[in-house]
Amino acid sequence: MILADSSVWIDAFAGRRTPAVELLDACLDREPVAVGDLALCEILMGCRDDLIARRVEERLREHHPVVALSSPELAPLAAANYRRLRALGVTVRSTIDLLIGTFCIAGGHVLLHSDRDFLPMQKHLGLRAI
């Protein structure tokens, strides 16, 4: 499964043609791209009003599976990943990004992102990303 981070969805909804948005378009032609529940929250937080938020949520849910990114089993794995990175001198700034990365690592999923916070997870934890 490919999971797209909010960094990509936000650019796509804003009409920005970034390299990650181009990859999103290419992936959508081949297979479903999932939206994480925490990414959905981040996307909807950026909407100007409730009407736009409802439309964005409806559009995403209509075309993409929405998956839960955390669980009682995943939380300790995310904390262990945080400690592992800290031991290497890397601080992950966002707990949500840590959970997203850990979800993908644990489940063997590929993450589509344009957020530099995932780069240490790729380098040191084996996060597969495009």
Can you lay out the helices and strands and say which pair or pack?
Elements: E1 2-4, H1 6-13, H2 19-30, E2 33-36, H3 37-45, H4 50-63, E3 66-67, H5 74-87, H6 95-107, E4 110-112, H7 119-125
Parallel strand pairs: 1-2, 1-4, 2-3
Tell me what you see in this structure:
The chain has 130 residues and is α/β, with parallel strands linked by helices. The protein has two domains: 2-67, Rossmann fold (3-Layer(aba) Sandwich), CATH 3.40.50.1010; 74-125, 3-Layer(aba) Sandwich (Rossmann fold). 59% of the residues lie in helices and 9% in strands. The protein has seven helices and four strands. It has helices spanning 6-13, 19-30, 37-45, 50-63, 74-87, 95-107, 119-125, and strands spanning 2-4, 33-36, 66-67, 110-112. The protein has a four-stranded parallel β-sheet with strand order 3-2-1-4, with helices on both faces. The protein starts with a strand and ends in a 5-residue tail after the last helix. The mean pLDDT is 95.
